[in-house]
Design brief:
Helix content is 59%, strand content 0%. The protein has 128 residues and is mostly helical. It has one domain (27-117).
Length: 128
């Protein structure tokens, strides 16, 4: 009998290795862009865990705001956004009523800790 797919299985991140089956990759020009962004991400954060790397690449490719960004900027902006929204309390702080600037201030050190852990020589400053 075949495995029945649940809603939870369908909702998993497409790069989740536990989702089963092959990971879907874009073909054509999108595949080349993904590869270039992946190379930039490797230079920016050589020690990034595989799952985070794939999620960041997915964001960089899927984000309309990054469609025209060069690969290095797309990788950096996606990585920082991923850390901020997924690995810190940033969204919870916003939900508690903090404005963006205050919430960013409170998670800045944590973002930079992740960047350092992932081997990034670059850090986020508090200026913007």
């Amino acid at each position: 009998m075949g495995r029945t797919q649940t809603n939870r299985d369908c909702m998993r991140h497409r790069s989740d290795p536990e989702a089963g089956g092959p990971v879907q990759r874009p073909a054509g020009p999108a595949a080349g862009r993904r590869e270039r962004i992946g190379q930039a991400l490797e230079r920016l954060a050589p020690d990034i865990p595989r799952f985070e790397r794939e999620a960041i690449l997915d964001h960089a490719i899927d984000s309309p705001g990054l469609a025209r960004a060069d690969p290095e900027n797309a990788a950096w902006l996606s990585m920082v956004a991923y850390i901020r929204h997924v690995l810190t309390d940033y969204d919870a702080l916003l939900a508690e009523g903090f404005d963006q600037d205050a919430a960013r201030f409170f998670v800045l050190d944590e973002i930079n800790d992740y960047l350092a852990e992932w081997g990034s020589k670059r850090q986020v400053d508090g200026e913007g």
